[in-house]
């Protein structure tokens, strides 16, 4: 759903330094993000309001998998990569771009995982936790709950490279701290959020030079802080597109007929109005498509003509993040317009192929 959970709250970013000993302390110049009004609605009591939030958060998508407990698996056994055989379970909303980021990472690296599709209204499947999706449950000698899409990815990437450490040992590199959002509410943030935490030897092996590592962090932050923000007003820029998005979401979502009806029409109107508020708040152009095209072309320009991916010959974490955010828009006019009016298509297709072929399998 879009905007949803972690992204909707626009948590304050803390990137850390990437050193194992580094710990970020929130300061007065840290960005104070906007908390979408729908987050407040979702935590309130009205059923119809919750339905509006649920589908109002919907990005829309073209392809779906089975809605409940679908199993993804690689062609080979990956238990040798872990200190013990681990079971990965992803609790998600299929149309959430943050969940899409985690799926893209897991699929690219060929890691087997189960999917539990969470009912966006009742959230019955995640009553056991205070966190929102995506949630990755890692079960082995110990059971660890991982939260926040960017942190989940950073932890897993660090874990796959540092084979001498367990997941619980890796988690300590990403300590939580409490900060305030723009509404004065306490939210959880993480130190070193966008950094893969490596020793000097591993850094030299994984990143050819310091610039490539910092570049990856920069664009991962850009995805969360800007790309996601620009996309929402584009999905709901008029009632026609808003309803079209909702029609796809409701038909493919886990809704009863009555719930789907209210979610579609109430949510479409709600998000249409909120998109206008977002447009003013973030000072977007009258035609918000122009801001979106500019953002996408900025990404393509940063890659340049001499590289296949931001990561060079293979996608890095920033490549996977940008792809994942665009992926959940497939089937919507916004996606078609992006492909027709920017230079991103060839890159997008290369990343898609890399993920489908699980080219990151055994890469770490």
Oligomer: single chain
- What is the 3D shape? globular
Q: How do the helices and strands follow one another from N- to C-terminus?
A: HHHEEHEEEHHEEHHHHHHHH
Spatial strand arrangement across the major sheet: 1-3-2-4-5
Weakly predicted, low-confidence segments: 3-71, 73-84
The DSSP helix count reads: 14
- Radius of gyration, in Å, reads 19 Å
GO molecular function: prostaglandin-E synthase activity
Keywords: Lipid metabolism
Family: Belongs to the GST superfamily.
Organism: Albula goreensis
Q: What would you say this structure looks like, in words?
A:
By secondary structure, this protein is α+β, with helices and mostly antiparallel strands. The chain has a single domain, classed as Glutathione S-transferase Yfyf (Class Pi), Chain A, domain 2, CATH 1.20.1050. About 45% of the residues lie in helices and about 10% in strands. It contains 14 helices and seven strands. A five-stranded mixed beta sheet has the order 1-3-2-4-5. The longest helix has 26 residues, at about 210-235. The protein is globular, with a radius of gyration of 19 Å. The two termini are about 30 Å apart. The model is unreliable at about 5-70 and about 75-85 (pLDDT under 50). Pfam families: Glutaredoxin. Keywords: Lipid metabolism. One of its GO terms (cellular component) is mitochondrion. GO terms for molecular function: prostaglandin-E synthase activity. This is GST C-terminal domain-containing protein.
């Amino acid at each position: 759903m879009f905007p949803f959970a972690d992204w909707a709250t626009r948590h304050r970013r803390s990137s850390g330094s990437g050193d194992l000993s580094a710990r970020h302390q929130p300061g007065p110049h840290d960005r104070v993000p906007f908390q979408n009004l729908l987050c407040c609605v979702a935590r309130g009591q009205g059923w119809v309001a919750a339905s509006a939030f649920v589908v109002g958060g919907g990005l829309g998508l073209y392809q779906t998998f089975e809605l409940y407990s679908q199993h993804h698996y690689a062609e080979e056994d990956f238990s040798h990569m872990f200190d013990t055989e681990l079971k990965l379970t992803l609790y998600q909303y299929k149309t959430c771009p943050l969940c899409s980021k985690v799926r893209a990472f897991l699929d690219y690296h060929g890691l087997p995982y189960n999917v539990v599709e969470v009912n966006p209204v009742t959230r019955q499947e995640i009553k056991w936790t205070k966190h929102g999706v995506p949630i990755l449950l890692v079960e082995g000698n110990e059971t660890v709950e991982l939260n926040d899409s960017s942190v989940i990815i950073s932890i897993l990437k660090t874990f796959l490279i540092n084979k001498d450490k367990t997941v619980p040992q890796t988690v300590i590199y990403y300590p939580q701290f409490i900060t305030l959002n723009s509404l004065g509410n306490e939210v959880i943030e993480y130190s070193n959020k966008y950094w893969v935490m490596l020793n000097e030897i591993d850094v030299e092996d994984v990143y050819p030079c310091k610039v490539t590592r910092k570049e990856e962090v920069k664009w991962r932050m850009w995805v969360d802080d800007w790309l996601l923000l620009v996309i929402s007003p584009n999905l709901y820029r008029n009632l026609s597109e808003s309803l079209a998005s909702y029609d796809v979401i409701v038909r493919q979502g886990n809704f009863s007929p009555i719930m789907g009806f209210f979610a579609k029409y109430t949510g479409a109107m709600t998000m249409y109005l909120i998109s206008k508020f977002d447009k003013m708040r973030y000072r977007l152009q009258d035609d918000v498509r122009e801001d979106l095209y500019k953002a996408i072309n900025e990404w393509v320009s940063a890659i340049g003509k001499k590289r296949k991916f931001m990561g060079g010959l293979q996608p890095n974490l920033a490549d996977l993040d940008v792809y994942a955010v665009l992926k959940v828009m497939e089937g919507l006019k916004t996606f078609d317009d992006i492909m027709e009016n920017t230079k991103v298509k060839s890159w997008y297709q290369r990343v898609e192929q890399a993920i489908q072929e699980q080219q990151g399998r055994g890469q770490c």
